[in-house]
Design brief:
Blueprint lengths: L1 H13 L4 E4 L5 H11 L6 E4 L8 H18 L5
Parallel strand pairs: 1-2
Helix pairs in contact: 1-3
Length: 79
């Protein structure tokens, strides 16, 4: 499963639209909008997939794997 998630991140990167995901969290929409403004130079698009409090374990794992691969591809150590 990890390899497939990383493939999705690589595909978006190669297409020129690297995405950083925010899955869940009560402030995820606001956080994504704020990050989009702060990180304009990185060519990274911040996407919120929900604005809810309960995040399933698998959703969190997907987010972590996907975002880590995206940042690696961009040469960004930490946001």
């Amino acid at each position: 499963m990890t390899a497939r998630i990383q493939e999705f991140a690589e595909l978006l990167f190669e297409e020129g639209t690297p995405i950083y995901l925010s899955i869940g969290g009560s402030q995820s929409v606001e956080w994504s909008a704020e990050q989009q403004k702060k990180n304009r130079k990185s060519n990274l698009t911040f996407v919120s997939l929900g604005n809810y409090c309960v995040v399933e374990k698998r959703e969190g794992e997907f987010e972590s794997i996907f975002n880590r691969k995206t940042l690696d591809l961009l040469g960004i150590e930490k946001l």
